[in-house]
Every structure is written in structure tokens, then in C-alpha cells.
Amino acid sequence: MAPGASRLTGVLAAAAVAAALSPAAAAARGPVVVQRSVEVAELKTSHKAVWSLGARRARGRMVRPTRPITGTRTVLPVDGHRTTPDGIRWLRVRVPGRPNGRKGWIARRGTTLSRTPWQIVINTRTLRLRVYRRGRLARAFPAAVGKPSTPTPHGRFFVEESVRMPAGAAGGPYALALSARSNVLQEFEGGPGQIAVHGVMNLGGRPGTAISHGCVRVADHNTRWMAARIAPGTPVTIVG
Questions:
Q1: SS3 214
Q2: Whether 66 and 145 share a structural domain
């Protein structure tokens, strides 16, 4: 089995239950704004994401420079900039992990800034996934989402890593592992209860239905199309 495959099994199988009352869900209730591009920060070193710049003892979370499944660089969407009186430049970024939708401040030093023209919008009510490039619709296709007992979480997330699935794995051929997490399953088969967009290979579930345990399933050829274009850090908004 390929490295990280057992963890990825948990990612896909535990694509579980939503956070209807989470900050991310509340933020996603308004109109979805699709931008021409979004600034992202690639981490060169580990960073502590702090929740407040004004606190004497800043509380926060460490964010590693690489992702756990593929080992690719961590890339985080940037929502703001600030320079504190001591001259340190900071970035406000979206932080992976629980609670959904958390944002924190990381030092600008030790990052490389760029922009992505891609954004994904998933609507669990219309059962559609739309991919935008430079603010224009590039592709749209039906998606299977979480059934009523295990709904797909709503909110503003991002792609943590793009994973080529091992041969014979459920949900292949590719999976986009998202920053979204289940608020019910803290872990599943070694995975962190992480939500993913993936195929239906060796799994089934016709796109255009509400049948999954929380993950978003699309036709296999559509996962190939996205995997060739969508990089880590790409914003993903889920509404319904």
C-alpha cells in the first residue's frame, strides 16, 4: 500500500458530518464571491498561527510546512496583511483542522506568496460542483454529497493536497483533500475525519444524488481534470 494510503482511507470514509452552526458555515450563508485570483502563501518552514496579534502570550497552533499524505508543501489562502509596531510583517491565513473556518496570523518571513486563478464552489442543494478560473466558470458537473444523516459541511475551505489514489482504492482515481473536518467523527480508521472531493471508482454513488457520508463524489474523469489543474491552497466554498 502506498505511503499515507491508510490515512487517506480515513479521509474518505470519515467524510462525515457537517458543522451547520460552525463559524465557517455561518460565513458561507452569504453570497459566494468569486474573485479573479486569490493570494496564497506557501510555507517554507513551520509556522505558529496565532489567533490574536495583540495578546501578550499569543495562543495558536503550529502549522507544518508539508502535508501529511503526500508530503507536498503547505499552501494557505491569505485573507489579510498587517505590520506590527516591532516591524514584523504578518499574514492572516486560513488554518487547516478543527474548528472549521479558523483563521490565524503567521509571520510573512518563511513564506512565498503567489496567486491562484482557481476557485471551487459546491452547492449541496443543487448537487453541483463548479470550477472557476479567473472569475469565469470553467467547468460544472453533478456531484454526490452527504445524505441527510451525514451532511457535507458548509463553509469556506481550501484544498490541502491533491492525492493520486492507490490502485484499487475506494474513491479513486484522485482525491482533493480539503481543510474541512467532521464535527462528529474526531477520527476514522486512522484519519482525522477530513472531507475530500473524490471519484467513484470502487465505491459507486451516482453524481447528482445525496448519498455519501459527507465527502463530495464526482465522475472519475472529472477528478482527473481537476487533479491536473487544482493545486493546494485553492479556495473551496460549500453552500446549500
A1: coil
A2: no
Percent helix, strand and coil across the chain, each to the nearest 5: 10, 40, 50
**200: nearest Cα among 226, 174, 177:** 174
Alpha-carbon gap, residue 74 to 205, rounded angstroms = 31
Closest CA to 177 of 156, 189, 163: 163
Dihedral of CA 221/222/226/229: which sign?
positive
The tens digit of pLDDT for each residue in 17-58 reads 333 334 444 444 557 889 999 999 999 999 999 999 987 778
**Own/partner pairs, 28-34, CB within 8 angstroms, 24+ separation:** 28/154, 28/155, 28/156, 28/237, 28/238, 28/239, 29/154, 29/239, 32/121, 32/237, 32/239, 34/119, 34/121, 34/132, 34/135
CATH number for the domain harbouring residue 216:
2.40.440.10
Angle at 23 between CA 74 and CA 98, to 5 degrees: 45
Q: Same domain for 150 and 166?
A: yes
Whether residue 99 is preceded by a cis peptide bond, meaning omega within 30 degrees of 0, is yes
Q: Over the stretch 153-162, which tens digit does the pLDDT of each residue have? A: 899 999 999 9
